[in-house]
Design brief:
By secondary structure, this protein is α+β, with helices and mostly antiparallel strands. 28% of the residues lie in helices and 25% in strands. It has helices at residues 7-25, 97-113; strands at 30-32, 45-55, 79-88, 90-91, 94-95, 122-123, 126-127. The strands form three sheets. Strands 1-2-3 form a three-stranded mixed sheet. It has a two-stranded antiparallel sheet with strand order 4-5. A two-stranded antiparallel sheet has the order 6-7. The radius of gyration is 18 Å and the shape is elongated. The relative contact order is 0.22.
Length: 128
């Protein structure tokens, strides 16, 4: 998937987790994209934060689809995006580890079950 705006990747992942975890859990959840230390509140929240980007070394010197000697600006750049996935929930100002573990498990199941996100992806009655 060729993308110039990396925020579109984060937005797509956010929507995927939001819709699928809500379907699996049977209730609405919040998905945020802030640094984990900035997430506050007691609502069931999953945080998805892009913390690191690197160029994929496997494709770094690949000739690409434009021939053997195109200008460097015409070469595709494969990236590895690294996210921190954290659950946040507290009941009555108390830490609730069980609910947090349930949230992160459902979020990880979602990312496992939908490894490819494209324009044709649908989840249940909602389209992403």
């Amino acid at each position: 998937m060729a993308v110039l705006d990396l925020s579109l990747v984060t937005t797509s992942l956010k929507k995927l987790v939001e819709v699928n975890v809500a379907n699996l859990l049977g209730e609405t959840i919040t998905v945020s994209t802030m640094p984990p230390e900035m997430v506050t509140g007691t609502t069931k929240t999953i945080n998805l934060y892009l913390y690191h980007i690197s160029e994929d070394p496997h494709y770094k010197n690949h000739s690409g689809y434009l021939g053997t000697k195109p200008p460097i600006s015409g070469q595709p750049m494969a990236l590895n995006l690294y996210y921190i996935l954290t659950p946040h929930y507290g009941a009555n100002e108390q830490f609730d580890a069980i609910t947090q573990q349930q949230l992160i498990g459902l979020a990880m199941k979602t990312l496992h079950d939908y490894p490819i996100i494209d324009d044709d992806l649908t989840i249940g009655p909602d389209e992403i």
